[in-house]
Predict the 3D structure of the following.
Amino acid sequence: MKSHFFEFTSSGTTDFVALDFSGARQVVLSVTSSNQPYDGKIVNEPFANAQGFSLGSTIQPIVVSSTDDRLYWVSNGAFNAVLQVWVVMR
């Protein structure tokens, strides 16, 4: 099994960063600390009103089984939101 570590930074509510988990067995998502309780969200479309779930520095890392290649990371405000991703490959 291989694994890779990535950091994705969104610099604002209109800065959508593409995430590609194709070929992943498991994905661990975490957000670096900042002064905001919820730093960003993962959405399935690069639009301001897209549905998604919020991740913040106060939340424990989340482990998901996803092979989705059409997700986006976006900041919840006018600040940098850094998503840390550890991808465990098949």
